[in-house]
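re: the backbone from monday

yeah here it is again, tokenized this time
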């Protein structure tokens, strides 16, 4: 008699945990199947120089782009030669550089729910700036002037508008990019016409720049260093050269800010014999693949990155938009969007997560003379 009683009493005791486990499994499966609905929304922002505006697209999980807004620059009449963009680390403000007089930084508030832009105000730039970037603290704007042979540092005011330049520093010929190091202790500026990268110590507390030692990294004569990107690990830097199409890999020493070249390859497709005109360079968020654009051939070059050595293995090149001055990679590392200055369009590619090869998905119209792409994921 006692054994049946024991069994009857224990069935509910075992049944309850099983039911609870089943509920947990069902809930987990529901979360997995519905992950897409709860993922952060991602937006692409395209800077259009000739139409003086920004094309805003919403990006779906399969890489589809839906246009949601065209944000015009207020107080700007003449088109500039390009429209560099930068987004603050807190994802609240987007800044566009205007390269027609008056030289302005146009600030927009980013709606956290829709990704749309609302004009906040305009601030002064020291010259026609080919490139702008925001330091890791979100307090200062770096900028580089190609025609003015200078770099500058402006504070960002509390409302997101750019303040008067705090420092304006003469450089060698044709400053083209000016970016902070991953730890915000240094800033580096390419001088395309002087074949060097200037190195500055940066005090993020005071916003002061001073030449570091050595003050410049020399690169081969007439190579034209243009844009560069840090590996997510912070151990390597990759630099694209406009005039000879080179892509160089450097070991980066975070303590001193030193660059040491470890490899030099090319962004030019096989069989090329024209005049190189390389433009932009970006790396996937996981650091496994690197891409560079070349404007003479209208191509994107792809590379595998060795995580241990930082060295590159060429994957190949694909055709893209006409005169691809700018492109970028979405925060998931699954998609790449390239824009063409002469095609007024954008093409989106899927990035193969094993090989790094690019597969064209779809093309979209943009504003006139698009040249810059920024991606942003909002919670």
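seq for it, each position gets an aa:
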């Amino acid at each position: 008699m006692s054994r049946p009683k024991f069994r009857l009493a224990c069935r509910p005791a075992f049944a309850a945990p099983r039911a609870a486990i089943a509920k947990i499994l069902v809930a987990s499966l529901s979360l997995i199947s519905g992950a897409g609905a709860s993922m952060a929304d991602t937006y692409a922002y395209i800077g259009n120089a000739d139409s003086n505006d920004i094309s805003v697209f919403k990006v779906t999980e399969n890489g589809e782009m839906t246009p949601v807004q065209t944000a015009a620059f207020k107080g700007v009449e003449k088109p500039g030669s390009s429209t560099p963009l930068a987004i603050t680390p807190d994802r609240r403000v987007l800044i566009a550089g205007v390269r027609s007089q008056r030289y302005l930084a146009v600030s927009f508030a980013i709606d956290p729910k829709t990704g749309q832009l609302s004009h906040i105000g305009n601030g002064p730039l020291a010259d026609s700036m080919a490139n702008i970037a925001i330091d890791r603290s979100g307090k200062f704007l770096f900028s580089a002037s190609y025609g003015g042979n200078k770099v500058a540092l402006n504070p960002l005011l509390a409302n997101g508008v750019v303040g008067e330049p705090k420092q304006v520093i003469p450089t060698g010929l044709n400053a083209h990019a000016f970016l902070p190091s991953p730890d915000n202790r240094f800033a580096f500026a390419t001088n395309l016409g002087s074949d060097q990268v200037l190195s500055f110590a940066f005090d993020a507390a005071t916003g002061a720049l001073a030449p570091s030692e050595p003050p410049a990294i020399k690169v081969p004569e007439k190579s034209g260093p243009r844009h560069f990107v840090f590996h997510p690990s912070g151990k390597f830097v990759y630099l694209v050269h406009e005039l000879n199409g080179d892509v160089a890999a450097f070991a980066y020493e975070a303590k001193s800010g030193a660059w040491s070249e470890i490899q030099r390859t090319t962004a030019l497709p096989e069989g090329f014999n024209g005049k190189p005109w390389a433009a932009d360079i970006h790396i996937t968020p996981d650091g496994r693949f690197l891409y560079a654009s070349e404007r003479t051939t209208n191509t994107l070059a792809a590379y595998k990155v060795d995580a241990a050595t930082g060295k590159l293995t060429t994957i190949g090149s694909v055709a893209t938009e006409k005169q691809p001055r700018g492109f970028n990679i979405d925060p998931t590392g699954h998609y790449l969007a390239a824009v063409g200055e002469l095609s007024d369009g954008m093409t989106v590619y899927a990035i193969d997560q094993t090989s790094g090869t690019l597969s064209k998905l779809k093309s979209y119209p943009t504003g006139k003379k698009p040249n810059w792409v920024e991606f942003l994921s909002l919670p």
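Confidence is low (pLDDT under 50) at residues 1-38. Helices lie at 2-33, 35-38.
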